[in-house]
Design a protein that fits this description.
Blueprint (H helix, E strand, L loop, with lengths): L3 E9 L7 E11 L3 H15 L15 H16 L4 E8 L2 E3 L4 H5 L1 H12 L14 E7 L6 H12 L12 E2 L14 H17 L15 H20 L17 H4 L2 E6 L4 E3 L14
Parallel strand pairs: 1-5, 3-7, 5-6
Antiparallel strand pairs: 1-2, 2-3, 4-8
């Protein structure tokens, strides 16, 4: 019986936002589907006249209608679980305690590790004891030194050795971890739209009015339109979807594998709540 091969595309967004930070996103798919889905998404882009990389930061009033059509098409793969999307973020008012300097130095990599280890529910993947699960991890370009990126790979390839998965026949070979250029990977481009929209919504960027102006800019309005369409697509999967909280596991932790779309509000094990860092304490809001 042949092994099962999966790919996780991963990306990160806002490291320090107004209310929420450390945004990570990922898409899991069967390796055998990679070329076909990529080819079909590229064809959709061409049909819509999207000749450049699709990115949240490029959304404006001239492109938003085409971006909406693209993301609707992207979600046809999500709703059928051919692409499984995961979004993770932290809430600023939950301040971790008892951290050492190394935790601050390696925060990005430590959170990335937790994201890959837990968000996709690899432990509960649909295989039997006689099959190995081989996972290739393809993060978007990692903005750090070669030495630290190599250390990051060391972190990830050891995930299957953790107590959580040690007996589950799961493998993340070190040479199966390599950062990629999102411009050449359309699956990451769709993820970027979802991740950027969530970061903007949670940090209230979609309400921003430029200094000296009376109303929002056209680009902000366009981004809000795209966010609403993304939210609507998610609500087709989860009617009671709440953007700011984690997705529940109604049938147990195996939901982390089976669900087509999930949010994870990451909470440090040891933390204190500082409500001064929350939305209700923000300037212009009643405290």
């Amino acid at each position: 019986m042949s092994d099962k091969h999966y790919i996780i595309y991963a990306d990160e967004s806002e490291k320090k936002g107004r209310f929420y930070s450390n945004f990570f996103g990922g898409v899991l798919l069967a390796a055998e589907e990679q070329q076909r889905i990529s080819r079909e998404l590229e064809a959709k882009k061409a049909e819509l006249g999207l000749i450049h990389e699709v990115k949240w930061q490029f959304v404006d009033q001239t492109s938003v209608d085409r971006y909406i059509e693209f993301i609707k098409y992207y979600f046809t793969y999500v709703s059928t679980s051919r692409l499984k999307v995961r979004i993770m973020f932290t809430q600023n008012l939950r301040v971790p305690t008892n951290l050492e300097q190394r935790h601050f130095d390696d925060q990005y990599f430590l959170l990335y590790y937790q994201f890959i280890k837990h968000a996709f529910g690899l432990k509960y993947s649909d295989h039997n004891p006689y099959q190995a699960v081989i996972v290739r991890v393809l993060p978007d370009k990692i903005p750090d030194s070669i030495e630290r990126v190599e250390r990051f790979k060391d972190y990830l390839c050891r995930i299957p050795n953790s107590g959580l998965m040690r007996r589950d026949n799961i493998y993340i070979p070190r040479d199966f971890i390599s950062d990629v250029d999102s411009e050449k990977h359309v699956i990451i481009q769709g993820l970027d739209l979802i991740l950027g929209s969530m970061s903007s919504r949670l940090n209230e960027k979609l309400k921003d009015i430029p200094k000296g102006k009376r109303r929002r800019g056209k680009r902000t309005v366009a981004k809000e339109r795209l966010y609403k369409e993304i939210n609507a697509e998610i609500r087709k999967i989860y009617p009671n979807f709440n953007v700011g909280v984690g997705t529940a596991c109604h049938y147990g932790p195996s939901d982390r594998w089976t669900h087509p779309y999930r949010h994870w509000l990451f909470m440090p094990t040891k933390h204190v709540v500082d409500r001064r860092l929350g939305k209700k304490a923000a300037p212009g809001r009643p405290t």
